[in-house]
């Protein structure tokens, strides 16, 4: 992992994914997901796709300013291209944190305007900001002034009480006027009272046509579509109408999907021929993390989806659930779990 104190000392650390000053490709993005897109999951994601743009979990400005920033910003150099997602609504604080993102070598800084949780609403963070386009614009302007990194916004198509097409266009135009040119649009509204965050990812209907209309109306803006995308076939379809796709839950629960991203969306060779190869490619990293004192189960919980739908996959998961938390659990535990998998059928037909 990068030691962030070094990054602070040296300024902009090595950015292996993207040349300094150039934009990362957002044709395929893995969504920011709290507790899921941790550095351990992202390491696996990067093994499976060299081209996907990865997003961190949301980090609030408060956590970075008052907490252990080094811990929150830590990542492995192989994770590039990597975007840091921030939660906040104070322009000065966001500007400071955007600068930190640059100093730590991130490739993009993204503002969360989509999270519906009560906890963050109380601090004017997340989807509630859709009701305050002027404030979002101030935040974006301040962030852009403090960093040369691309500043992007991830948002919903609306919130309850403010869910009209005109309100969405007002939001886009106000924020674009502050210099944001990339919008990642979760194609459903958020309902800020009465639904849990999980329900808010399932109950409000998806309106992909609204996102397509945004791209048609604002062709100069980069529009990345998000919400409910489960296969590369669906990605291909969306890419006829938008500049990029962002996949969340499916990428986490069935990460082997990522193994087809490079060949299918970028015409690049697939980095890994099999799920077993992918897991074994993680061994040196896992060993180094174990040596740092990270318990095996903190890592393996993010790898459980790798053998999703494969004969022996259930036994693989069961073995890890029963053994990875035990004292002394290590690579031998993983080897035993791997032996439970009969075959992975080499390349998976992920677009079905
Ligand atoms: C466990 C979990 C945590 C999430 N955390 C975040 C977050 O930190 N920031 C954010 O913008 N969205 C977050 N989301 C929403 C996802 O980024 C994405 O917008 C949503 O899941 C819809 O995409 P999907 O249908 O491909 O999963 C989270 C989703 C899940 C499932």
Description:
The protein has 352 residues and is α/β, with parallel strands linked by helices. The chain folds into 2 domains: 4-265, TIM Barrel, CATH 3.20.20.70; 275-338, Four Helix Bundle (Hemerythrin (Met), subunit A). It has 17 helices and 8 strands. The protein has helices at 4-10, 39-48, 61-66, 69-73, 91-103, 118-121, 133-146, 165-177, 208-217, 232-239, 249-253, 261-266, 275-281, 283-291, 296-300, 313-323, 331-339; strands at residues 28-30, 53-60, 82-87, 108-113, 151-156, 182-186, 222-226, 244-247. An 8-stranded parallel barrel has the order 1-2-3-4-5-6-7-8, surrounded by 5 helices. α5 (91-103) packs parallel to α7 (133-146), α7 (133-146) runs parallel beside α8 and α16 runs antiparallel to α17. The longest helix is centred in the middle third of the chain and has 14 residues, at 133-146. The radius of gyration is 20 Å and the shape is globular. Bound molecules: flavin mononucleotide. Flavin mononucleotide is lined by residues 31-36, 57-58, 85, 112, 114-115, 154, 186, 201, 226-229, 247-250.
N-C termini distance: 36 Å
CATH fold annotation of the largest domain:
TIM Barrel
Quickly name the level 1 CATH class of the largest domain. Alpha Beta
Structural class: alpha/beta
Enumerate the strands of the largest sheet in spatial order, edge to edge or round the barrel: 1-2-3-4-5-6-7-8
What value does the average pLDDT take? Answer: 92
Can you tell me the residue ranges where pLDDT is under 50 for at least 5 consecutive residues? 2-17, 344-352
CATH superfamily of the largest domain: Aldolase class I
Order of helices and strands: HEHEHHEHEHHEHEHEHEHHHHHHH
- Per the principal axes of the C-alpha atoms, what is the gross shape? globular
Q: List each distinct ligand once.
A: flavin mononucleotide
For the largest beta-sheet, the strand count, sense and barrel status come to: 8 strands, parallel, barrel
Total DSSP E strands: 8
* Domain unit count: 2
Indicate the percent of residues in helices: 40-55%
> What is the gyration radius calculated from CA atoms?
20 Å
CATH architecture of the largest domain: Alpha-Beta Barrel
Number of helical segments with 4 or more residues: 17
Q: How much of the sequence is in beta strands?
A: 5-15%
């Amino acid at each position: 992992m990068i030691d962030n104190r070094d990054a602070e000392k040296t300024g902009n650390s090595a950015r292996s994914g993207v040349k300094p000053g150039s934009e990362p490709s957002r044709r395929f993005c893995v969504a920011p997901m709290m507790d899921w897109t941790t550095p351990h999951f992202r390491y696996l994601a990067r093994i499976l796709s060299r081209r996907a743009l990865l997003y961190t979990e949301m980090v609030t400005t408060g956590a970075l300013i008052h907490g252990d920033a080094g811990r929150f910003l830590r990542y492995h150099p192989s994770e590039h291209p990597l975007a840091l997602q921030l939660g906040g609504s104070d322009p000065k604080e966001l500007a400071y944190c955007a600068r930190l993102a640059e100093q730590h070598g991130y490739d993009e800084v993204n503002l969360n305007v989509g999270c519906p949780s009560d906890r963050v609403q109380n601090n004017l963070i997340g989807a509630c900001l859709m009701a305050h386009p002027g404030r979002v614009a101030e935040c974006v302007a301040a962030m852009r002034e403090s960093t040369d990194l691309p500043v992007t916004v991830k948002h919903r198509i609306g919130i309850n009480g403010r869910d009209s097409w005109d309100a969405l266009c007002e939001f886009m135009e106000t924020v674009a006027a502050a210099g944001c040119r990339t919008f990642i649009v979760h194609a459903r509204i958020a309902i800020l009272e009465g639904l849990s965050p999980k329900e808010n990812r399932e109950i409000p209907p998806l309106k992909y046509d609204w996102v397509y209309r945004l791209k048609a109306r604002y062709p100069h803006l980069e529009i990345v579509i998000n919400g409910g995308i489960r296969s590369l076939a669906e990605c291909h379809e969306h890419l006829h109408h938008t500049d990029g796709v962002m996949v969340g839950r499916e990428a986490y629960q069935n990460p082997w999907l990522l193994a087809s991203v490079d060949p299918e969306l970028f015409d690049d060779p697939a980095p890994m021929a099999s799920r077993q190869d992918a897991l074994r490619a993680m061994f040196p990293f896992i060993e180094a993390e174990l040596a740092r004192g990270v318990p095996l189960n903190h890592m393996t919980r993010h790898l459980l989806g790798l053998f999703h739908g494969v004969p022996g996959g259930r036994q693989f998961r069961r073995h890890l659930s029963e053994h990875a938390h035990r004292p002394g659990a290590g690579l031998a535990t993983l080897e035993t779990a791997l032996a439970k998998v009969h075959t992975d059928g080499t390349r998976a037909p992920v677009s079905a």
